[in-house]
Structure formats: structure tokens, C-alpha cells
Design brief:
Layout lengths: L1 E21 L2 E15 L4 E6 L12 H16 L3 E2 L5 H4 L7 H19 L3 H4 L6 E3 L1 E4 L5 H13 L4 E5 L6 H11 L4 E4 L9 H6 L8 E2 L8 H7 L6 E3 L6 H10 L4 E4 L1 H4 L2 H14 L3 E3 L6 H10 L23 E2 L9 E3 L9 E2 L1 H7 E8 L2 E2 L1
Parallel strand pairs: 6-7, 7-8, 8-9, 9-10, 10-11, 11-12
Antiparallel strand pairs: 1-2, 1-4, 1-16, 2-3, 5-14, 13-15, 16-17
Helix pairs in contact: 1-3, 5-6, 9-11
Length: 375
Amino acid sequence: MFKIRSVELTEINLPLVHFFETSFGRTYERRIILVRVEDADGNEGWGEVTCGEEPGYSDEWTDSAWVTAEKILAPMVIGREVEGAADVWGLMKWARGHRMAKSGIETACWDLEAKKLGVPLWRHLGGVNQVIECGVSIGIQDSIAQLLEKIRVELEAGYKRIKIKISPKWDYEVIKAVRAEFGDILLMGDANSAYTLADIDKLKSLDEFGLMMLEQPLPHDDIIDHAKLQAQIDTPICLDEPIKSPEDARKAIELRSGKIINLKNGRVGGHTQSRLVEEVCRKAGMPVWCGGMLESGIGRAHNIAISTLAGYTMPGDVSASKRYWHEDIIEPAVEVSASGTITAPDAPGIGFDVKTQFLAKFSTRGSVVTKQGIK
């Protein structure tokens, strides 16, 4: 049991080591909102709001999430006593949507509670696999040759699965070149909603490459047309954006809209909801894996923790800090073993220390919300 005394928001600006391009566009740096919660006894926990700078992937973006977290969600939880972190989601339920903003606060409370109990967050969440397998996500490149070189580097680093971003102008010939160069590696394509059912012949043509999955080929809010597409192609469809709740997962499973789900913590609203989606999928025999949103080390630490649950049976987009950042905001930095795995830490909470001096260097704004107001 604990009572939240304050919610502190910090926005940082971190340049990426390499640009990251999807069908939405190209990203060179990340504006990230970090959340620090403190209870009445002075215990703290850290979370991260994982939305992008613009409402491309979801209808949330950095500036909207800041206002929502600061003026609406934080006041809902401050001064409220809860039995545990699993109850924090319910305190914010009145506000519709805004799951990524909610997740920043909710996951911070899970970190706080695990630290109070002196247990690793992954174990506190019910994780069973301390060692998780890792994949990488590689954006659209300037040339096929550049893509092949990036894949070679990641394979040599030990990653278990390669995900490449695709679009109607960057698909068949690209995947063909990858297969020709690297053979039967674990390979998947992520379309980020770039296709429609009018592209069914093009999507069927990808069956020849034996992809692990084709992620979110059709519109972001659809599960009906995905069911029609899945019935006509052999490649398993992986659903991403339309799965925002356990009910969404149940409906997609019943409709046979896909065969795999990419479960992103922020998209569903945090650990409590992720655990419920994982349970629905696990009982239905639907594999899930943890997707990424170009998180800083705090968000990455939460992804590691949730990926230890039993239903996460496929390599996720949880990779080393150095793939994205010249210097991460946590220590030690997240590292991947030579065999392509990450071991969840044994230290209490997320298991990493936040470098507060580093945050101060890259901070662009901050806010502390208490019962007395915002300062």
C-alpha cells in the first residue's frame, strides 16, 4: 500500500546515433517525457511516456501527452492511497484514451512498488524468463546496399531476429535481396499501415520469402480487413496499433485478424494492461512479443521487465542502448550478449540507476505536480 505524493515530469531531447525511417517519416532525435513518482515515504519510481513527437503512430504526441499527464492524469493519482501499483490504472480510467501518458505514470508506480518491496520489477510483474531473446528493428535506408550492411552488423552482434521496415516502394526487391544475401535468417517486415486490400497481390507475393510475420500491413485501426487478408496469404500477420486493450486482443483473435501480436507497453497503457493482454493471448495460444518506440533506457528497462512474462515467446524489439544513443540515461547501459539475449537485472525495481546529472544536461522543461498544484 502506498500514497503518491508527487508526479514529476521531465522532457529530454536525445539525438539518435542513426536516423530511423518508417512509412511515417524519418526521425533524427527524440523528445522524451520521463516520469518520476514519489510516495508519502519518499520512495521513488521512474516511467517513460513513449509517444512520438507527432501524432503519426498514435493520436498522442509529446506536447499533448505533457499537458494530459500534468493537468489531468497526475491530479487523479496524487494523494490517493492504493493497495498496489496494479490499482493505479483504475485511478485514471475516467480519462478516455491517452494510454501512453497513463503508462508513463503507471509504470513509474510499478517501479516504486518493486523498490519498496526490494524485488526486481520483472519478478514482481510475474515474469518467469529472466533471459529474453532480442531482435532489432531497422528502418528504411537510402539504398539496399546500406540496408544489407546494417543487417550484417546486427547479425554479427548476435541478434536473434531482424525486422525491416517496408512500404509499397520498399518491399519485394528489398526482401528478395536480404534473402539472397543472408539466407533463412529470422526475418520479418513491418509495414506501419502502409498498404490496403487493393495491394493484396503485392502482399501475397511476399509469401515466397518465408517471413516470420508481416506486421500491421493495413490501416492502424483495422481488424476486419486484416482478417480478410490473413485468409488469403500464408505469411502470419502481426497486429500492432489496433490492439489497445484485452478486449481488442480477444476480438482480433476471434476474427482471426492475425496470428501474432506486438504488445507495446505504452500503447495499451502500462504493465497492468500488458499483463491482461498477455493473459488473453497466452490462453488462446497467440504468441506476443514486445515492440519498441525508440525509448530511452527507462522505457527500455520496463520493456525488459514485461518481456519476461510467459506469453512473450518471440524475440522483441528490446536491444542494446548503444544501437540508439551515444550515451543512455541509465547505468549500466542495456547490453545484449553475444548470443543475442538480455538478462533482466536482479536489483530492485527496474534494476538500473537513472543518471540525474545527465538528465539535467539534456532537459528542455520540467514540472512537479503535488496536492498544492504545479511548479
